[in-house]
Structure formats: C-alpha cells, structure tokens
Amino acid sequence: MRIWTTETQPQHLQFSYWREVLCEAFVSLDPVRQRMEPGFAGEVCSSPLGRTMQTSVASSAQFLNRRTEEIRRNPVEFVFVNFQLEGSCVVRQDGHESLVKTGDFSIVDTTRPYFLDFRDDWRVLSFRVPRTQFLARLAAPRDAMARCLSGSHGAGLVATRFAHSLQDLDDDLSEASQESLSSALNCVVTAVLGSTPETRERDRSSLQRATRSAVEGYIADHLADPSLSPHTIAARFRMSRRSLYSLFEASPLSVSGTIRTLRLERSAHDLLRPNRPSILEVALRWGFGDLSHYSRLFKRRFGASPREFIAASRKPDAIDARVAG
Fold first, then answer.
1. ∠ Cα 237 101 169 (to 5°)
2. H or E element: which one contains 84?
C-alpha cells in the first residue's frame, strides 16, 4: 500500500503537492481549491487489486477537472468507480450531471472530460478499472457515466457492501485472488448499470455469491432491529423472497435460521458481560419479544437456559466452548 499525505509538506507547498499526488495516484487532473486558507488537507491510500487500483482519498472542498488538456497530456483509458463514503459530490460528464451523496456512487470515463465538485470535506473509495474490461460488460456504456447510483437498496447495496469489504483484504493476497475479486467488483457494479445478456449469464454465479455476502453483512449489521425478517431483507435488496431463499439453499441455515442463530450468539456474549443487563433486556435488545420463547431457543442452542448459562460463567472453558460451538 502507498500512502500520500499533505501533512508531510510545509503549508505553502501542500496544495501544489496535492496536485502531484492526484496525478500519480489517479490520472492527470486540474484541482481548484474552493477555500483560500493556510495549508491544504488531503490524504490518499492506494493498493493494487489485480489490474484494478483501489484507492481511499480524503480531502476538503475543491473542484477536480479532467479537461481536454489533461486528457491530451495523459491519454490513459480507465473507468473510475467512486463510492462516496463522506460528504457529497456533483459529477458531470457526457451532458449528465448528478449529486452523489454519502452512501451512493458514480462512474466516470477518463477518455472524455469530466468535472467533480466536492463542496465540503469528503472521503471517497475509488476503483480505477481498465476501461475495455468494464465497458464491454455494459448494454449502454455512454448512459452509465455521471449517474448517481444508490448504495442503499437493491443491486446498488450489493455493490456498495462488496466494495467496502475490499478495504479489509490481506496485504499478501495472491495475484489470482486479486484478479478474481476485481472481476467480481466489475460484475456487481455493471449489474447496477445494466449489463449485456451474455454478461448477465456469465456472471450469474459470481453475482449470487456477492449478493449472499451482502445479505449476510446486512443481517449482521441489523440484528438489533426487531423488524429484521426475510420480508424486510428482500424489500431492501429489491428481490423476491423466493430469490432470497434460493441464496441460502446450499447453506445449513435458512435466512430466518441465520438471523435467529446470530441473535442468540450476540445475546450470549451480552450475558457474559461483567455489567450485564437483565435477561429480559438482553432478549429485547436482540429482537426476542417473548422471554419464554427466547429461553427455549437459547437452551436449544447452548444446552442451558440463560440463567444456567450465567451461573456457569465462572467456568469460562465450558462457556467459551458453548458460544463457539
């Protein structure tokens, strides 16, 4: 991983250094600061993902232009997939203009002029993808640029969760694994934009794996929500419940079983806390509205009622084995 930060430079050189960083980490760009203040804050962290480059960038309000001059000086052929982690951005290309807010994402093509307007402090997770590799998958490539793609539901939620998961990869990941993940990223992003029929058929299994991973992550993040259910999950991902159930057909646990098991495991950890709340509070926190029903499920899962489980907590080996198992 390579890291650049303006903090390494004297204040009067920070913005000119930032211009150099953008050109090295991305492509030739013309940054224009929006606030004339002493110094300039910016940081870029970049690492390869096969032929794709993954970059996290954070900075303050500015315009970023890729004009005809920059294209002529640096005629590279990439597509940038930019996930807005913080702040917002107005993006323009090919006559399209969109406001991209936190949680959403957009795409630009480096072979044609584009404009990015970051109006406040911001942070973006950006993927630089070989252009031909990406556009060949799309049914309407020109319509894909400078659109605001929602990361809060449907295929956009799958793409966003998958992209975020790539930030936690091991540094020693093999080249083959990197290429596989890069291809999977292209698969989930182009599914949002509308891929060709041939691409959809070829990517079917990869898209199913990515969707299931996104669903599992969504479940883990929303276990405390009492309304979490196959119905609400299917609605969030804009799929039928039948399609949702099919994602878990090869798993020993159904969707409901996954939710129930994870909730029981979270509740067990709460019961082991030194300042643990009451059993009823724990049950309610993890979506169990009926205490007796919770106790029966808990005993079936861990071989002891919640009270017995707490009483046995002085025997950590036994408890650890139950929670892990």
1. 65
2. strand 78-86
Candidates 216, 218, 189, 215; CA nearest to 203 is 189
- What confidence tens digit (pLDDT) does each residue in 78-106 have? 999 999 999 999 999 999 999 999 999 99
**Contacts with 182 (C-beta within 8 Å, 6 or more apart), sequence order:** 49, 50, 51, 52, 129
Other Cβ atoms less than 10 A from the Cβ of 12: the count is 10
Residue 275 pLDDT: 87
User: Which of 166, 204, 169, 167 lies closest to 185 in space, CA to CA?
Assistant: 166
What pLDDT does residue 312 have? 87
- pLDDT score for 316: 58
Sign of CA dihedral 167, 168, 174, 178: negative
Domain boundaries, the chain: 2-202, 264-324
DSSP 262: H
Contact 84, 105 (CB under 8 A): yes
pLDDT of res. 323? 56
pTM: 0.84
Report pLDDT for 194: 87
CATH of domain 2-202: 2.60.120.10
Calpha distance 207→202 (Å, rounded): 10
DSSP-assigned states of every residue in 22-65: HHHHSS--EEEESS--SS--EEEEEEEETTEEEEEEEE-SEEEE
Residues 212, 250: Cα–Cα separation, whole Å: 11
CA angle 210, 240, 226 (to 5 degrees): 85
φ and ψ at residue 188, rounded to 5 degrees: -75, -35
